[in-house]
Structures are given as structure tokens and as C-alpha cells.
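Figure 6 in text form: structure in, sequence out.
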């Protein structure tokens, strides 16, 4: 590993520390967003190879997930969409209401049991949409 990997590793560790400070009051055993985000979705090798603009978007997405969890844990009622529900619909973390509605309708046509789709998949789709269509 070169100097670029080492610098990226230091930056990611700082992000982990920042998340720990932000989510200090999280429930015992509640995992950090960082653990899944930078070990599964964006491992060090991928992050180190990103250009500046892509890296910035990944960090924005990471903090969206962190603040969503923070608000959920502290019951702040902030208007954030559930990033996992958005991912199940194949949408980015910053999708708007119109984009969510349009995507739901597209997928509903595919998954609806009357159209030959699987009822279980349709139910999951509907639950995800219900979470997002507050």
C-alpha cells in the first residue's frame, strides 16, 4: 500500500471517530454506519482509487446515513428518508418525492401479483414505499 492508501485510511478513521461522537448515545450493540459502509459498500481499495468528486459524493451519502440513524435513535422527527428503503427501490439516498413515486409505480407494475409478479416481493416494495411516502 502506498501513501495514498495510508492517507485515505487516516481520513476514514477520522470519520469513524466523528460518527462515534455524533452517535454517542446510541443503544448498546447498535452498529456504526461506518462498519457496513466502509467495509462492505466502499472498501478502502475502492475509496483510495476514487476521484475527488466521487469521493465527495460517497462522504455525503455516508453522513446522510449517519444523520438518519442519529435522528431515528433520538426520535427527532427530522424529515430524512430511510436510506435502506431507498436502496430497495433502487434510488439514491437523496431521491425526491416525485422520483420515489415514479419508481414505485414502475416497480409495482413488475411485482404486482395481478401482473404475474411475486406477492412477497410486492409486499416488500409496498412497505418500502410506505416508509418513504410519509
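Output sequence:
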Amino acid at each position: 500500500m502506498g501513501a495514498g492508501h495510508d492517507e485515505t485510511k487516516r481520513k476514514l478513521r477520522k470519520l469513524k471517530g466523528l460518527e462515534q461522537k455524533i452517535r454517542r448515545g446510541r443503544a448498546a450493540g447498535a452498529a456504526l454506519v461506518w462498519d457496513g459502509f466502509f467495509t462492505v459498500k466502499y472498501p478502502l481499495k475502492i475509496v483510495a482509487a476514487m476521484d475527488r468528486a466521487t469521493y465527495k459524493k460517497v462522504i455525503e451519502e455516508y453522513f446522510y446515513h449517519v444523520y438518519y440513524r442519529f435522528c431515528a435513535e433520538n426520535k427527532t422527527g427530522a424529515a430524512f428518508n430511510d436510506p435502506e428503503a431507498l436502496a430497495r427501490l433502487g434510488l439514491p439516498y437523496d431521491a425526491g418525492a416525485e422520483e420515489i413515486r415514479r419508481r414505485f409505480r414502475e416497480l409495482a407494475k413488475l411485482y404486482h401479483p395481478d401482473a404475474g409478479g411475486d406477492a412477497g416481493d410486492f409486499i416488500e416494495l409496498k412497505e418500502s414505499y410506505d416508509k418513504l411516502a410519509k
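Caption detail: The radius of gyration is 18 Å.
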